[in-house]
Amino acid sequence: MRLAYSRILAAMILGSAMSFAAEATNLEEVFTQGEISNTLGWFGQHIDAKGNTANSGFSNGYLNVGFETAPLHGVSFGVSGWGSVKTSEKNDDDYKSAIADQSVLSQAYVKIEHEGMGKVILGRQAVDFNWLTDYIDGVTAEISAVENLVISMAWARKYSVIDIDEISEEFTKLNGSKGIYMLDAKYTPIEVLELNPYVYYGDNLLNAYGLKTTLTLKPSEEVKTTTIAHYVAINSDVADVKDGSFTQIEQGVELFGAKVSLGYIKVDKDGMAGLGSFGDQLPFEEGNHAMDPDAKTPYVSAAYEIEGVKLETIYGQTKYYDGGLDKKLKEKEFNFSVGYEFIKNLETSLMYVNVDNDVKDESYNAIKAHVAYKF
User: Fold this and answer.
1) Where are the alpha helices (DSSP H) in 20-112?
2) Strands 103-114, 75-89: parallel, antiparallel or unpaired by DSSP?
3) What pTM value is reported for the model?
4) How far is CA 344 from CA 67, 199, 238, in A?
5) How far is Cα 35 from Cα 374, in angstroms, rounded to an integer?
6) Are 366 and 47 in contact (CB under 8 A)?
7) How confident is the model over 297-306, as pLDDT tens digits?
8) b/e 62-87 (16+ beta carbons within 10 angstroms → b)
């Protein structure tokens, strides 16, 4: 599989580079017409723990600096880095346990792109797929030459979480040095329907086959409905790790700008067989046990924007199996957030999180505040 994957990527790289030969810019324009993306921000959180767990919290200022050159013969280079500095903490190591590395090179890549055909990105980069998110060190490719069809491929050698409230200590190897492969297609046979079949493969680790279907209807100017059905089956290649599966169904309605959704998430009684350890797209801020074995999570969410103020909330209840206690437990989670852009490119948000678990030591309230200026 690795050899076939490499041949496909090599063909795309050669084809894209040749196709761009007639559209070259000079070397000076490569840098003067490049794109700069910077974010200066501050994040703080306080956790009011229950039971015998101590309260915790920290705050940090951060700077995210990025630059991508203008393309030359279809080839561009990009780099970005995060820097974080502690501004406060409740207990020793509250900050370090979340921000393990105060400075990190989050992206360093070469991109080869051709409009109407697709692109290939080699190196350290941000990704956002069903089960591969955050940052990876590897290769991704996107083919968009066929109308209504986008095919994405990826080989992720390393993985890291880099965000305002968490920075991993380093990029961690995935599946030893073998990495994780992904093939993802998004096909829109008609305007209202998107079919998203995908495959994940890790040598001697797992095989996962999934399908996410999204149906969007707009019966009137004021009303829009969105139906999502998502299922993935995971076959484990690891001894003593059983196969697993994941199911999600969600029905959303947008009426006069207000969005309300009802959803349900179910994990196989034997768990996820390792899928989800390199990213997911769960709707909760915490979601501590939503992907545990035999977890069942109904939820309801709502969002509304008025006069530039963004209001979002979600409530869910997860019933899951705790192997250590050898019994089923329940955890309720409630999120409520308010966001507002005071001036252009200056955004602020405040979030309240309530987690109520049958195990008192796992229950807590959290307040999270964020201010970010993009320039």
Assistant:
1) 27-32, 94-98
2) antiparallel
3) 0.90
4) 21, 41, 51
5) 13
6) yes
7) 999 999 999 9
8) bebebbbbbbbbbbbbbbbbbebeee
